[in-house]
Please model this.
Amino acid sequence: MINRSIVPSSKEIEQIKLIEAAKSELSNGIPVYTINTGSQQLIKIEILLNAGSVNEHKAITARATNSLLKEGTKNHSSSQIAEQFDFYGAFLETDCSKDSACIALYSLNKHLSNVLPLLSEIMYEAVFPQNELEVYLQNSHQHFLVNNQKVDVIARNHFAEIIFGENKYGYRTKEEDYTNLKQDDIKAFHKSYYLNNSPTIILSGLIDDTVHTQLDSLFGKSAKTKKQQHAGIQTVSSLQQKHHIDKADAVQTAIRIGRLLFNKTHPDYFGMLILNSLLGGYFGSRLMSNIREDKGYTYGIGSGVVSMKQTGYFVISTEVGVDVTNDALKEIYYEIKRLREELVSEEELYLVKNYLLGTFIRSADGPFELANKFKGIYEYGLDYNYYTQYIESIKAISSKRLNELANTYLQEKDLVELTVGKNN
Amino acid sequence: MIEFSTFKLENGLRVIHHFDNSTQLVCLNILYDVGSRDENPKKTGFAHLFEHLMFGGSVNIPNYDEPLQRVGGENNAFTTNDITNYYLTLPANNIETAFWLESDRMISLAFSEKSLETQRSVVIEEFKQRYFNQPYGDVWLLLRPLAYTTHPYKWPTIGKEIKHIEDAKMEDVKSFFHTFYNPTNAIMVVAGNTTLEETKLLTEKWFAPINGKIITPRNLPKEPKQREARTLTVERDVPLDAIYKAYHMCKRMDADFYAMDMLSDILSNGDSSRLYIELVKKQQLFSSIHAYVMGDLDEGLFVISGKLVKGIKMEDAEKAIEAEINKIKLQRIEDSELQKIKNKLESILVFNQMNILEKAMGLATFELMGDAALVNNETERYAAVTANQLQNAANKYIQESNCSTLYYLSKKK
Model:
């Protein structure tokens, strides 16, 4: 009989090997980064541009431009473009954040040469037809109305406004933005940030040389352009500490507690990532253990340290039953206080360290994941040494250091609190 | 193509092994052949509540998550109307921890009162978060009992009502465990950077000592054929009117399933699909519209749902959906459109097998449906569907008399 109460022996995670992106350049200098790995005959091509909403002059221009690229070019209508991608089983994904814009194409290798020309066509020859713009604005507006009934969405948007202040990072989309945007705004934005801007291309999957050749013929022949600069942000956090937004019919209250912090280029970033994990970064975290697994106040609670190009923030987020809102808030502050006043036990620290190392392996498992790892450093001007340092920081950090960080960055007076739900 | 080996223990546990040395991880996936369709109609939501309790400690291991996290692992689980599936991934050299944890909770749970009490609250909060605190959140609480009069698909996995969760007793928990949680009722997949030999050795060591049980085959009430259209109209505090049309269709493993899945793609998969081009872009009746199959193992549903553009009359919107359905029924689909859907499905299948967890879940599900090897036949099964079959399936299932329609209206203020 085996003794089942004895934990099987385990090994510590020693080596973590990352497959690094290989750099090449198109004829006109556009950088291409290639991660050639995987077990399936497929590829993802991402085009990254400094074309996020920080660079727009009128609200929602960046997002609309990004979304509407595929809605018509000089030579093809919106439906012809969709038909072509769909016919070859390819998927196009457009994404636009505050910091940057991305166009991603997913395709089986055998069909790639049929859809790649269309990718460069929508990027360089998009015409943004007026009727397509109208449909887009109408449907985005309706989507906005539905989303704004969700307490978590309301909380997310207002929280950004509270911690960043009145600037592009803090901007909250308004209903009138959907009527103010005009075709000319989009055309002008496209000209500056898609035509007169230098993209970065990232390839991941199983990649043969013909891909680079075809890329060069499609993207490498245009004139050399310079990268557009990221527009500067001056953050001004709200001085008011507690905020509440009334939503009378809500059966749960959305809670956000956090503060402006810094991004991944800051020397304390790794430490704060680890401290955050302990507090609310995984299933066994203190917030989950206390507020979900012990009290049952919520289906889930978590915290995060989020890095953006010019700054970063720390946030705790959850939705809790209306009647336990105050109890949940009390427990959240209690857990933060515990980080400031008590040293983390060696046992808990050991667990978190190993969990984070395992999570790191999972986050780099597969070609697309490796591409994300690369983007995570590239966009901040960092190199792979960043990940080596991260692993070393996890292994080296002490409970004393975590306690210092908690006292430096998680003082209650420095945290803002937002609740969205029923008044009480 | 996923290569794999299978073996079976004397206690009935079916095991599938898939080797992949491109990863430093292994995944262990255990599927239990029990879902919310197996619940007592007076105690619904139980399979899912039970899934939560599976993390509340087992007979020899007081805490499930901690030892797994301590070796770099992570886990989760989900419950559907048909199955309950548990999975974990961890660094390959710590694989034994996974066997230790999963085998212990297959022997018995700790059955702690505290855990039951907490998870009841957690699940009630989940109920509120997903079904009552979201616009359109209660759709399936309304649509399921409209579409099903008899079969247990008439309640959602979360349960019919919160009260059923509140009333859950420890004796129910124990009896549920003893009925459904044992090796005979489970399929285990071990995938990743571990050899077949190691998998066999560890399976023998940790799972062979667990006693098997004879499982009474399920005998669920069959849904009678729907003969006339059913409708339900509700008003809610939402910004837009919405429509949901649910048609009864075949089981997941029937040949018609593939035709119905392809019909849903023709209607709404991608920006060149018919409903999107016609009703969203051209006529601008809907701001979003989707067609999909539920994929249930028993006779399931084919669903069309859409949110109307503000100011559009429900009547006109529904007529436009019907017109598109009629086109599919009356006109044979062109070869190029058929080829497009097949290419798309082939692509989706390849993209859905990129990591060990996706592969493991696929193997487990197909083994439950009869044979793990079928996971590799999906592309061919879709490729074999003809335009005639599509037209026949449309005429057979997508009939108004076979349809339950939910009109979900924005409350007039």
